[in-house]
Design a protein that fits this description.
It is a single chain. This protein is about 60% helix and about 10% strand. It is of the alpha+beta class and about 375 residues long. A five-stranded antiparallel β-sheet has the order 4-3-2-1-5. The two termini are about 20 Å apart. The longest helix has about 35 residues. Helix 1 runs antiparallel to helix 14 and helix 2 packs across helix 14. A hairpin with a 2-residue loop joins strand 2 and strand 3. The chain has two domains: about 90 residues, no CATH class; about 210 residues, Orthogonal Bundle (MetI-like fold). It contains 14 helices and five strands.
Length: about 375
């Protein structure tokens, strides 16, 4: 019985599955994507931007625990989209070290990181019934654990890290999408038609290529205003040149294939030949370069946020978090800057390893 020949796509998938680092990096990227999509469901602090501040417990180490009084708020309303955008807190959190009831009034001693004995404060809370101290503790107090500690504003670092994943993942997707739209369109036109069209597009590519990427992104960000949406557009507009050069080279080679000559002889339109016959056969290098551009976009966004040109506070961004806490590196709280730095390193490394694995998988010379 004759053996059935396997397609190049099937062979590439088999080679990718056998690449340990490729599968590991793909799995790690999948974890980050899940964290980004379900950020407010997964994060301990589900408030908008995980921005609940407790100055009295700022800069605490991982695993820090503190007793919290939860004072209900009346202006909180549930919304269906809270799982995506975050919710308004339904209670105010007050860290305390001691709670008591004096003359029918509940009083508490605020938590002090220096261990000083502060004066008791009256608890302003509207109770519908007279509660014993033990019952009050059961209903309105809890012990809160900060797995990664708190930042310099007393916010939950883990929640900020999880929600900050959205910025890095989304900047990669949007920037790569913009670069692919521009790069594939212009690169395919330049490679297919050649002549004056090729000269004009190549001139644009060379001019854009000669400008340092970071400086161009900064210029676009300053022109359009600060904010992560501007950064998405700016990064995408600086990455299309590399895609265009690769696509152009691949199209120049592919348009000489016999089946392309046959398509022209049959009278097919140029658009149909480019998008239905040429581009499907040059997707492999585009996929590989997209993975590398994804990693580059994450690094650029982090750099811009560190410079104050990216996502603006209180929106959590890994670059912003490093900027807020880099001075702690010389103190005994270096983890405040190291944690987001490690997250950036892991995500960028995962995309670079994924790109290498895809390159090896699509290398038909080694396919068996």
């Amino acid at each position: 019985m004759a053996t059935r020949s396997k397609s190049l796509g099937h062979l590439a998938l088999q080679k990718f599955k056998s690449n340990f680092w490729g599968v590991l990096s793909f799995s790690l990227i999948g974890v980050f994507i899940v964290l980004a999509l379900g950020a407010y469901v997964i994060a301990p602090d589900s408030s908008v931007n995980a921005n609940q501040m407790h100055i009295s417990i700022h800069s605490q180490p991982p695993g820090f625990e503190v007793d919290i009084i939860k004072v209900p708020l009346e202006n909180s309303e549930d919304d269906f989209w809270d799982w995506w955008t975050g919710s308004q807190p339904d209670h105010e959190e007050i860290p305390f070290s001691k709670l008591d009831k004096v003359d029918g009034v509940f009083v508490y001693r605020p938590y002090d990181i220096d261990g000083e004995q502060q004066a008791f404060k009256k608890l302003d809370i509207d109770l519908k019934e007279d509660l014993e101290l033990s019952r009050f503790r059961e209903i309105y107090t809890s012990t809160k654990t900060f797995i990664l500690g708190t930042d310099k504003y007393g916010r939950d670092l883990l929640s900020r890290m999880i929600i900050g994943t959205r910025i890095s993942i989304s900047i990669g997707f949007i920037a790569v999408f913009i670069s692919l739209i521009l790069g594939i369109t212009l690169g395919s036109l330049a490679g297919y038609f050649g002549g004056m069209v090729d000269n004009i597009i190549m001139w644009s590519i060379n001019v854009t290529w000669s400008i340092p990427t970071l400086l161009m992104v900064i210029a676009i960000s300053l022109a359009l205003g600060k904010g992560f949406l501007t950064v998405f557009i700016a990064v995408g507009l600086t990455m299309w040149v590399e895609v265009a050069r690769v696509v152009r080279g691949q199209v120049i080679v592919a348009k000489e294939y016999a089946f392309i000559t046959a398509a022209k002889a049959l009278g097919f339109s140029h658009i149909r030949i480019i998008f239905k016959h040429i581009l499907p056969n040059v997707l492999a290098p585009i996929i590989v370069i997209s993975a590398a551009n994804f990693a580059a976009a994450i690094l650029i966004e982090s750099g811009l946020s560190f410079l104050g040109l990216g996502a603006q506070p209180p929106t959590p961004s890994w670059g912003n978090m490093i900027k807020d806490h880099y001075q702690y590196i010389i103190l005994d709280k270096a983890y405040l800057a190291i944690v987001p730095g490690v997250a950036i390193m892991l995500l960028v490394m995962a995309f670079m390893l994924l790109g290498n694995a895809l390159r090896d998988a699509f290398d038909v010379k080694t396919a068996s």
